[in-house]
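Schema walkthrough. Field components (list of strings):
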Amino acid sequence: MDIIDIQKLTKSFGTTQALKGINLTVKQGEVHGFIGPNGAGKSTTIRILLGILRKTSGKITLLGKDPWKDAVELHRQLIYVPGDVTLWPDLSGGEVIDLLGRIHGGLNVSRKKQLLERYQLDPTKKSRTYSKGNRQKVALVAAFSCDAQLYLLDEPTSGLDPLMEAIFQECVAEVKKAGKTVLLSSHILSEVETLCDRVSIIRKGQIVESGTLSGLRHLTRTTINVETKTSVPGLEKIHGIYDVSKNGLKYCFSVDSTAMAEVMEVLVPRGIQFLTAEPPSLEELFMRHYGDDISEKGGI
Amino acid sequence: MRASDFTGTKTLFKLFLRRDQFLLPIWILVPSILVFITAGTFAAMATQGLDSVLTEFNKDPLISALLGPAISIDLSGAIVWRGTSQIALVLGIGSLLTVIRHTRTDEETGRSELIRAYVIGPFANLTAAVGLTVIGNLIAGILIGLSIIILGGEPAGSFLYGATMATVGFFFSGLGALGVQLRENSGTARGIGITALGLGLAMAILNNFRGGDTFLKWINPMAWQRLTQPFAGNYGWNLLYFIAIGMIFTVIAYILSIHRDLGAGILTARSGPFEAPPHFSGPLALAWRLHKKSFIGWIVGTVLYIAAFSAISPGLSSTGGMSDWLSSLGGTNWSNEVGLGYVFISISIYLISLFVSFYAMSAVLQLKKEENEGRVEMLVDKQIGRIRWMGSHLIIAYLGSALLMVIMGVAGGFTYGMIAGNLRNEFWHIFGMCISKIPPVWILLGVTALLYGACPKITALGWGIWLSFTILEFAWEGQIIDWSIMCISPFSYVHYTINILELPLMPLFWMICISVILTGIGLLGFRNRDILTKA
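Field assembly_structure (string):
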């Protein structure tokens, strides 16, 4: 069953169209990465899923129900962690965690204690004194102390240090192992790469790519460094080969996966001395989709 | 203290000026507007000559209990006599909030941290904030002086009065600057300042009740016009005393400010509990927790005021002799029959109930604060329907405002009854007066709930409505408007001129119904709109 099914979802705020026909499916038990630059519409999508924003048009079902109409009922089964946590200044972290857990319908006390330990969070401090990272920890401890079918995490690790980031990844892995579903919106591509089964890339209110990581990699280029015995004339003329640079008999270029066989046929007769092939990272995948954004702004 | 400690003061001053471009003119101009309004009401009343009206007022035991003896029997004197409390209150609140806003609030939000990383001396921020407030008060003082001169006052007295009011503002700017050093949250400083303002108003009334010449005029800035005596003694040297007091506060603030870390308070931060108590488990418990502090503050304030008023009012009944203006209020001579003390306590309860509606409205607007500051987002994934979340705060607002009136009734009834020596009868009269004001308070509550739920961008309209009901009352007292216009205000149906024993109950019932309907529409509106979230 699809936990989340979104078809042609749009959302307008006045005259600005934040979402322009999103399609997104998240299957039961998967960790789904939701990546895109600031202002692409990640948070808007998640807030529509939470039923706090109303869709303008399109079809959206969450666990087979309508997130706007059946919000309260659905919230029994989901947990949300925002990327910018604001807390009640006069409440201590411990009080906030307990309160959130109880409103959710109960939290696992021993698990809470264990999480406080792992995240090294002092729950006796007043919320106003917490730093950004510590506020985020409060929300994460509250979230993972609760039991839910679906975890909606909207850039949950912003402000966390790398050690805490690693603990967060452990938490998500545990949740996944227990068969729960996670929608993880993130900037940190290594996080998505380690955790996610499938990825959707959103840009300017539209999903531009969606699929498994390995599936997406087929769409992109591999970077190859090669040294041959004799020179390779006409290499740059092959369709699907890019950025060829030559230094003596050392060549460096990137190549579409579709052109890989042809490139090898050309290289092999020249006598390969040395070869490295780097698979495309998510980083590059990301850059490919935002490349024109970056060049528009005069970067790279 | 070196010159480099003040580096960047000018830049920060300009920044604060830019941030306050709408707020600053309000509290600078309102005092002068109050001067004209006060003059206007006297002009309207004094058709047979201002002197006779003032002389009569001065003899009236009720009015002189509240306002004390007039220092000078002319229009300028009347402005000082009637307008000082309001003008001092406006300048006090304006100065207090301006200083806090540019010091502790900036530290709380982290803006100071950003600023202090640049070439900014340790005293620059405090100096710019205090400087802005002092200049604001000076301008306000000059404008007050010019306004009275325009109305025909003699220049020396006019400017002395303006200067006196400016030093009151300086007092509260110093108090604010001192308050923000104590704790890491701005609420503490605001609490100290507002307590001082409340006490100041109460002490001013107490001082007036005792003839205006007690030691209280020395310690209470709201009574400082009795020291300088503009248009009478013109004792300008006293200004130095006022400035000295303001300076003491400010200097202590400067010293404390370098003995603490940025963002921290002089008093160490208290830590909270490791776990929440078992009953802290739902939206209502959370709402109560968020409202508790301010509610307790309101209880203390209300009880203090009602106790003071009801303690002095029975004593007024024997003095006899009442101005024509008062006894003819409402077109009946009910006030002649029941006695002055009774009229006084009725008016007091009526006025306090206007302030309780202020509480009810601000309690509803806690919802907006929670939404704007993004804390609702922590609850949106929980099994709390929108109606339940909004309802939790509304319950506190409804019950809290009603409870304030009930407590007021009990405290006032007891004090009045004990002192009047007729507890059994008087208690129920006073209690009845208090609880009869609950329905109109709830009307304003309902209006605010409707605005918040259906069109949250214009909740400020609620304050406008509150203000217009208040203005209607004063306009009617000043005989500027007719009773038929006064009937727009829901408070007119429980007006102090109506004998509590003969109060028609149907309007009260309808008012409760209207309040419930307004709130219901607000709840439906909230259910159908987007929740505001951070971008």
